[in-house]
Design brief:
This protein is of the alpha/beta class. It contains 11 helices and 9 strands. The strands form 2 sheets. It has a 7-stranded mixed sheet, with helices on both faces. It has a two-stranded antiparallel ribbon with strand order 1-8.
Length: 262
């Protein structure tokens, strides 16, 4: 029996097989992978992933869905369910506990908390091999946006400084039950290697990026005046009269690293 989607959990269950198959094919799980699915719902993606990998860990907050999921998975493979809010799951500890170097994470994320989930995963990027997520298409567009784009912003910068962002394909509302009011898209995130990642202080970088985009119409000299004066911005090889949406992620790293004691 199909479960009744709960609006409070932002549930939209994927049901159209061709899109499920495309997602599984994109992930291409192997028997030696440690796959973690966020929000398995009715198991539309869970069961084919489980069949391919032989084992899978799922994180599900809705207790009503867990018994049916366990029952359907019993004949397919080894399913472990963590009943928890994903924002409270320590992915690094999960990898260590199971003795695996890195996790592969997938999921049809609740759209209303997709950004917090993305940032939470990025905090554990060193323990993650890759991520494949279904998200609102607008969010995927923002994640992959380049400088100068109208949708380029804080999410674009922070994610691109941690991961390679690869939009894969779009999914129409009719592929879900109930259909959402927006188009969806599947995206692949591959965490950068330690050699590829920036060496700025994370808190300082976050503060600079947040302030820069807080009021997009302001020049950097005005937007960052509580953090950096015009001379400091110039020392980062950035024009104080520029606006945040014109800067590359690397520009923000230089701003975060500039010496303010001079």
């Amino acid at each position: 029996m199909n479960a009744r989607p709960k609006k409070s959990f932002g549930q939209h269950f994927l049901h159209e097989r061709r899109y499920i198959e495309r997602i599984v094919s994109s992930i291409s799980p192997r028997a030696d992978d440690f796959v973690v699915e966020i929000g398995p719902g009715e198991g539309a993606l869970t069961l084919p992933l489980l069949a391919a990998a032989g084992k899978l860990t799922a994180i599900e907050l809705d207790t009503d869905l867990i018994p049916g999921l366990q029952e359907r998975a019993a004949a397919v493979g080894e399913l472990a369910i963590i009943h928890a809010d994903v924002l409270k799951v320590d992915f690094t500890a999960l990898a260590h506990r199971h003795g695996v170097p890195r996790l592969r994470i997938a999921g049809n994320l609740p759209y209303y908390i997709s950004s917090p989930i993305l940032f939470h995963c990025v905090e554990h990027a060193a323990a993650i091999q890759d991520m494949h997520f279904m998200l609102q298409k607008e969010v995927v567009d923002r994640m992959a946006a380049e400088p100068g784009s109208k949708v380029y912003g804080r999410l674009s910068v922070m994610l691109q400084l941690a991961c390679r962002v690869e939009p894969l394909f779009n999914v129409p509302p009719g592929a879900f039950r109930p259909p959402p009011k927006v188009d969806s898209a599947v995206v692949r995130l591959i965490p950068l290697t330690p050699e590829q990642r920036h060496d700025a202080d994370p808190e300082r970088l976050y503060a600079v990026v947040r302030a820069a985009f807080a009021q997009r119409r302001k020049t950097l000299g005005n937007a960052l005046r509580q953090l950096l004066d015009a001379d400091a911005i110039r020392r980062a090889d950035v024009d104080p009269k520029a606006r945040a949406e014109t800067l590359s992620p690397a520009d923000f790293v230089r701003l975060a690293k500039v010496d303010t004691s001079i």
